[in-house]
């Protein structure tokens, strides 16, 4: 499956504006929508926080996540061998408050487990300071040396099972805040080409010092900041002029850029990113945000159709669970009680995505679908709350069923990525 990445690299170096969406989500509805999209191949990624040797916040190890994705693929009629698995932010982030020795030992085991589970795209991220690092910014050379250590661990693990040639690496440390910024920003600094060059050279030298010359040849992408970001209630759009020097810089190198936090960018901005060699486009919260919008729309239809005592109360149940278990949103959402209430429901950061697996929420969602399956949904209600899906129903392209409309809502958010990347469903 790494031929998928190789083909994107080749196309980019031949002047074609082709890219690859990176679906960074463990949400079953998001993955189901992707598998029903008609895309010939899919890149699905998990982060070190989501999935690690201790389970992460999904409760899944790398092997368990790989099996989960494969099972979903079979359930949805998608060939599992057409899925490329990627590990995002693989490094010591989960253990950054520990001394470097223990944090890096755990990070090495993390990478080994990802490789053993069949992941092929490995993002080495050692950008964070560790518990006993000296004051001041982390030295670029130190970050590079740590990334090389993880590459060595990955190569050793792959050698045991004959998978070295399957691995492709992503390097780079200029990564936007995972899940979105917590404060308004007038703009973010586009990576300066000199900083990109320093990262490349430091990482290349660190690889070579560890005898990883052949692994260096399999570096596929560099993570940089193209000037995109999102937060609770703002989106910073891509400005091609501001990133022009950075776009030209990568052209002589044998790899492309990977852009994080591209969620909520316009179709035009996404196409411009791909044209400017940001060929791997990360997306996650925008897809679960679309799912949340769809569920809320269905809940509002339910309120019009179902007696009060039989309603799912899905919107209220979600908020009650979030208030009772504030771990995943409290440090992200500032303001008074009313402001926090709005953010819990409608923030672009979409911290609500952590709460769909909760038992009370899952029960409420089942009730919502059951209620709407037992009654015909008037077209006027669909027009009111899901106008894009209404248009497709009128065109005979979609059934007026709650689950079909919800999947299509997610697919609308995905299609702009497939279009920008020129993903060919028949390739």
Write the layout of secondary structure elements.
Blueprint: H1 2-13, E1 20-24, H2 28-35, E2 42-47, H3 62-75, E3 83-90, H4 100-116, E4 121-124, H5 140-161, E5 168-171, H6 193-209, H7 213-216, E6 219-223, E7 229-230, E8 235-236, H8 244-249, E9 256-259, H9 267-275, E10 278-283, H10 285-305, H11 314-324, H12 337-346, H13 359-373, H14 379-385, H15 387-394, H16 402-421
Parallel strand pairs: 1-2, 1-10, 2-3, 3-4, 4-5, 5-6, 6-9, 9-10
Antiparallel strand pairs: 7-8
Helix pairs in contact: 2-16, 4-5, 5-6, 9-16, 10-13, 10-16, 11-13, 14-15
Let me know the number of strands.
Answer: 10
Instruction: Describe the main β-sheet briefly.
Output: 8 strands, parallel, barrel
Strand order of the largest sheet: 1-2-3-4-5-6-9-10
Low-confidence stretches: 176-182
Strand content: 5-15%
**Tally of separate domains:** 2
Supply the helix-strand structural class: alpha/beta
Give the CATH superfamily of the largest domain: Aldolase class I
Mean pLDDT: 95
Helix content: 40-55%
Instruction: Describe the global form.
Output: globular
Q: Alpha-carbon distance between the termini?
A: 13 Å
Which topology of the largest domain does CATH recognise? TIM Barrel
Question: Can you identify the CATH class of the largest domain?
Answer: Alpha Beta
Roughly how many Å is the radius of gyration?
Answer: 22 Å
What is the architecture of the largest domain at the second tier of CATH?
Answer: Alpha-Beta Barrel
H/E element sequence: HEHEHEHEHEHHEEEHEHEHHHHHHH
Count of alpha/pi helices? 16
Q: Could you state the oligomeric state of the chains shown?
A: single chain
């Amino acid at each position: 499956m790494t031929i998928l990445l190789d083909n994107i690299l080749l196309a980019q170096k031949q002047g074609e504006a082709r890219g690859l969406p990176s679906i960074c989500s463990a949400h079953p509805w998001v993955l189901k929508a992707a598998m029903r999209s008609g895309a010939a191949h899919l890149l699905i990624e998990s982060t070190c926080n989501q999935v690690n040797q201790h389970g992460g916040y999904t409760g899944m190890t790398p092997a368990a996540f790989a099996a989960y994705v494969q099972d979903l693929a079979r359930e949805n009629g998608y060939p599992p061998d057409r899925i490329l698995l990627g590990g995002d932010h693989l490094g010591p982030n989960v253990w950054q408050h520990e001394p470097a020795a223990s944090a890096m030992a755990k990070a090495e085991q993390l990478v080994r487990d990802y490789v053993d589970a069949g992941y092929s795209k490995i993002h080495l991220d050692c950008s964070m300071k560790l518990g006993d690092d000296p004051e001041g910014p982390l030295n670029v050379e130190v970050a590079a040396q740590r990334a090389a250590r993880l590459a060595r661990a990955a190569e050793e693990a792959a050698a045991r099972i004959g998978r070295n040639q399957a691995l492709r690496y992503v390097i780079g440390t200029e990564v936007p805040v995972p899940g979105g910024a917590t404060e308004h920003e007038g703009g973010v600094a586009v990576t300066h080409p000199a900083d990109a060059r320093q990262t490349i050279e430091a990482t290349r030298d660190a690889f070579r010092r560890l005898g990883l010359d052949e692994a260096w040849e399999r570096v596929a992408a560099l993570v940089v900041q193209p000037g995109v970001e999102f937060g609770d209630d703002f989106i910073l759009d891509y400005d091609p002029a501001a990133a022009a020097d950075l776009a030209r810089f990568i052209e002589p190198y044998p790899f492309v850029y990977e852009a994080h936090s591209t969620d909520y960018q316009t179709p035009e901005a996404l196409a411009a990113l791909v044209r400017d060699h940001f060929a791997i486009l990360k997306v996650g919260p925008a897809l679960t945000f679309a799912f949340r919008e769809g569920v809320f729309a269905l809940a509002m239809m339910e309120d019009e159709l179902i007696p009060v005592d039989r309603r799912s109360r899905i919107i209220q149940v979600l908020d009650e669970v979030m208030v009772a278990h504030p771990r995943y949103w409290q440090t992200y959402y500032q303001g008074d009680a009313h402001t926090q209430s709005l953010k819990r429901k409608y923030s672009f950061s979409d911290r609500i995505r952590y709460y769909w697996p909760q038992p009370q929420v899952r029960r409420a969602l089942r009730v919502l679908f059951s209620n709407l399956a037992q009654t015909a949904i008037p077209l006027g209600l669909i027009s009111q709350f899901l106008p894009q899906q209404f248009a497709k129903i009128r065109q005979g392209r979609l059934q007026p069923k709650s689950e079909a409309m919800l999947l299509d809502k997610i697919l609308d958010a995905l299609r702009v990525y497939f279009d920008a990347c020129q993903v060919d469903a028949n390739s």
